[in-house]
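hi support,

uploading two proteins for the ticket. first:
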Amino acid sequence: MSDTIEGQTENAVDAREASLRQPTVFHLIAILPTWIAAFFLFALMVMTFFDVVLRSALNNPIESATELTRLFMAIVVFASLPMVSWKDNHIVVDLLDPIFSRRLAHLRAIVIDLVCGLALLWPAKRIWDLAERAREYGDVSEYLNFPQYLPGWFIAFFTLVTALVFLARGITRIVAPTRVPTK
């Protein structure tokens, strides 16, 4: 009898652990920007490799390599920001951490998250406005004739998402502090 109960308990635990490993829609939405950043980082690496090989071996570099490098770097950086912000993986200088008590450190973290979230709303709006101006003027890149407003929209969108992530993180610190990821 006890073997049956133990077996059922183990099966229930295994089923629960398996359900935790199954990606949910929210999990997929959360990791999508990370995969976008990884793809463009890989594309940047491949392009740089071929640019160096073509430049060295054939004296014929990829003409639009500088333009593509700027575009790919913007995509890598801004697509990564929401996840980096949520996981609190920013570079920090913690010289003053020893003078804060646990409670004050928690309050400081809440204030920093909320202020960063609010502060990022203005750049998101401003970048969107500049992208719209580029769209109205028909600005395109030099070599590829790529519309300049598209990267602007991308940067504005992910800056806004990062602002919302900081605000959500700050609110989560207040409502459910144990749910906030820490380093």
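and the second one:
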Amino acid sequence: MRKILIVGVILFFYGCGNEKGTFLESFESKYDYPTTVEKLKTSIKKEGLEFLGEIDRVKIAKEHNMRLKENSVFLFDNQMAATKLIECNPSFALDLPLRVVIWRGYEGDVHLEYTNPEYWSLKHNIKDKDCLEILNQAVISMKSIAENTTK
């Protein structure tokens, strides 16, 4: 019995790996940080979404006498789609507006990442056909934004 318990615990923690693949979508940009940021803003508008703002983590770090490589979170939304998703499950408000992070690595490489909207159907237990279609569109839009920004 003890061996079964130990194997179960090992399998549980093995399954809780720190791999991004399932929930996060990651893209490496072929552009420098400022160009990637400007391309993101253009891509958001091109998708017909509303740009809501930027959280500049470097600025926040400096205010606290800390250092951080370029890292900003960008907020954008489609108000009609967001409202419908929140109607499906009020907890959706935790993941909206949409967010993308752009960050610079130690070797100057620039990355764009976002949570895969398909994950939200699991997280918020969405089964409604209309809401699943909105999530499908979000997957397509997010990928288009990321590709138009980084390639």
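thanks. also noticed: The domain at 19-150 is CATH 3.30.310.70 (TATA-Binding Protein).
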